[in-house]
Amino acid sequence: MGESGFGWVLLAMGLYGGLHSALATHAFKRFLARFLGTAWVQRYYRLLYSVVGGLTLLPVLALVVLLPDHVLYRLTWPWLGLALLGQGLGVWVVWRGLRATGAMAFLGIPQALGQNPTSPPRLVTDDIYAWMRHPLYTGSLLVLWLMPQMTCNLLAFNMAATLYFLLGARLEEAKLHAEFGAAYAAYARQTPGFIPRLGALVRALCRCFGLRWLF
């Protein structure tokens, strides 16, 4: 990739993905519980995971910006407008996913504040999760791959992030199968992973824009 940090960004993002995936495992939770206690893990683990994930991503993003780089392409109209529209859709998909599961709970803030930290988790299958099982990944991928300007370093980041999302989805689904059993298996059979079926997407958009009478 010429004079760019392509390889370094790939390596850094690979290390980040490996660390983040390891921290998300039940084995790591059990390791923490052994030293800090089960109650501490139930209350603070999610917040700790979010903070560590955010902080360790910052050096990777710094490499994307600071290492030598060159532009692969820049979009112009009308493709620029379509890309921005797609990125807006991606942000909306992520927002709907966070709204369905609870953005604060996703970060672990209510749990850390002692608001029902031991309450049983709920399998979310409504809202945007009725269209796809991984809306946060789908929305993020739309934002990443529809950048109006693509550079070598950003390409490396996007490639590694995509692989991380795919592997992360597999690990996440294994945990959900273990946690919810037959209920999650039935949901997974009926609902696509990343790309919603066209009919379901059209129906959902019509509901969002007040056109329920069409279906």
In short:
The protein has one domain (5-209): Four Helix Bundle (Hemerythrin (Met), subunit A). It is 70% helix and 3% strand. The chain contains 10 helices and 2 strands.
Describe the protein in words:
Helix 4 (79-101) runs antiparallel to helix 7 (135-145) and helix 7 runs antiparallel to helix 8 (152-180). A two-stranded antiparallel sheet has the order 1-2. The protein contains ten helices and two strands. The protein has 215 residues and is mainly alpha-helical. Belongs to the nurim family. InterPro entries: Nurim-like. One of its GO terms (cellular component) is membrane.
What's the helix and strand layout?
Layout: H1 6-23, H2 26-36, H3 38-66, E1 71-74, H4 79-101, H5 103-107, H6 109-112, H7 135-145, E2 149-151, H8 152-180, H9 182-190, H10 198-208
Helix pairs in contact: 1-3, 1-8, 2-3, 4-7, 7-8, 8-9
Shape: globular
Distance between the termini: 50 Å
Q: Spatial order of the strands in the main sheet?
A: 1-2
Run of helices and strands? HHHEHHHHEHHH
Descriptors:
215 residues; Four Helix Bundle (Hemerythrin (Met), subunit A); two-stranded antiparallel ribbon; 2 strands; 3% strand; globular
